[in-house]
Amino acid sequence: MTKKPPREPLIVQVPTLLMRTHAIEQATEINALKMDKSLYEEPPRRRKKKVDEEEEEELPVEGEVIDSFVGYHHFLSNFYSAPAFYEGKRYPTSEHAFQAAKTLKPELRAKIAKLGRPSDAKRFGKTVVIRPGWDRIKFDVMRAVLRSKFSNPTLRKLLLATGDAKLVEANTWGDRIWGVFQGRGENWLGKILMEIRAELKASET
Questions:
Q1: How many H-runs (helices) and E-runs (strands) does the chain carry?
Q2: CA distances from 204 to 9, 154, 157, 199, 201 (A)
């Protein structure tokens, strides 16, 4: 009777089985990851815009209306941080200069010039005793103040870049004299800005 060859010890077969099982598990995990890349790939990061980077401005087309003096067009606002002059005195913004013009008292004008924010100047301007004939001259005062503001070469270029767009200070604070509120208003700020733009264009021809 032929003798059967002895079996290999079980201790040899167990590690082999474990290695095969582990290899199968690893392959399964890799395939699953390949099918769902979102598990190991980071989403593309959006490049943060630097503060000092200039935004590209598209030239207005015929009939365009710029009715928001914020963001890129904030320079059109009297609250924009750019110096303006009135009767030989320098003010931090055109808002400061305009509010100072309401009074004839030099000490009050000097106080307004030192106020930090244009909103503070506007608030203070409501407390002064208004000079005689203010309603008659206030539009000419605004013209003078804004002409000084846009004598700055950079602001001059930005204003001219608005092309032939209609400039409208649409607002939410109810001003229907200098701007437009809820579709109604005289828009004197926008009108004067467009007048000055036309003057600047004419000076270049």
A1: 7, 6
A2: 101, 15, 12, 9, 5
Domain range list for the chain:
65-204
The residue whose two tokens read 């395939």 is 31
DSSP annotation string for 24-44: HHHHHHHHHHHH-GGGTSPPP
Q: Which of 139, 40, 46 is nearest to 98 (CA)?
A: 139
Average pLDDT, the chain: 82
**pLDDT of amino acid 14:** 45
Q: Using CA atoms, how far apart are residues 199 and 205, in angstroms rounded to an integer?
A: 10
Q: What is the C-alpha to C-alpha distance for residues 34 and 140, in angstroms, rounded to an integer?
A: 71
Question: Which pair of tokens denotes residue 110?
Answer: 């000097």
Task: Enter the pTM of the model.
Answer: 0.70
CATH of 65-204, one of 2.60.120.560, 1.10.357.40, 3.40.50.720, 1.10.10.60: 1.10.357.40
Q: What is the mean pLDDT of residues 31-57?
A: 43
Q: Degrees (nearest 5) of the Cα angle 132, 136, 139?
A: 120
The string of pLDDT tens digits covering residues 142-178 is: 999 999 999 999 999 999 999 999 999 999 999 999 9
